[in-house]
User: Fold this.
Amino acid sequence: MTTQNVDRRSQEGAPGATDSGPLSLPDPPVKNPGADRSPGDKALSAQPSTWVAWAGVAAFLVLLMGILVSVVTDSFGRAWYAQWLPTEFTASWYAEAWTRFELGHVILVTLVVAISVVALSILIGVPASYALARRQFPFKRAVTALFLLPVIIPPITFGIPLATVMYNFGLGRTVLAVILVNLVPSVPFVIITMTPFIEQINPAIENAARMSGARMRHVFLRILGPILVPGILAAAILVLVRTVGMFELTYLVSGPGTDTLVVSIFRAMTSAGGSEPRPLVSAMAFLYTAMMLVTLIIALRFVNPTQLVARVRDGDDE
Assistant:
């Protein structure tokens, strides 16, 4: 092939050659069918499962609000039998419930039990969570599965043997017995909550502290402590709610003077064949709900449990 033929072929294939064949224009860009659609049109074309999910959430909220409104209205009403609303409203049911069932003492016992269970569960559960997250030992999975049992099985299954042990040691119907039996599901609950939280913390932080001469106690209190505060607060909130609402274990070992609020409500409903006025029980139920809401609002003021994992991951990424 000569040099002239090469030059002629290169000229024919050049972009600016005038003797080439018909020009081929590029294909027009494919337009996205949904690009010009408004948000309202996109919402209308949502999948049916989305509408079903929202309908279920709406139905749940409506039923929940209906129950709450019914209880509150019942606690303030009199002679509510044939009408949609009570014929008369009064706050005397709350005063009567407060004096008849000694709710001041009951609420004090509930707070003492709840705070004690939360403190002991954190003191026992956090070090155990650290050991499970950082140490490797034989039968580690079996130990972890063992901690799951008090959380997933019904409390009544192990509550009766626990109550038998408490009565045999002379601790039945005491505040100490109520605290001890509530620790059985609460400590594993803290361990299950805190172990994944600790596993996401970079071990290089602890190794650097140890290389600098810090002892394990100082590493745990001064370095890991501030990092673990959000997780500890979240676990404390969950244990607090679980303890205040724990009925089965508390009912088996409590008695007059050591009942928590939820057990007192049950005793009021079943005393003398359920002869207590219904508004009286509704007033106690509203006090219980209000106490739980106030506790949750105060606790969530300091920590948002849904952001715990994100905080840990952000810290690791940095």
Residues 108-317 form a domain with the MetI-like fold fold (CATH 1.10.3720.10). The two ends are 63 Å apart (CA to CA). Residues 6-21, 307-318 have pLDDT under 50 and may be disordered.
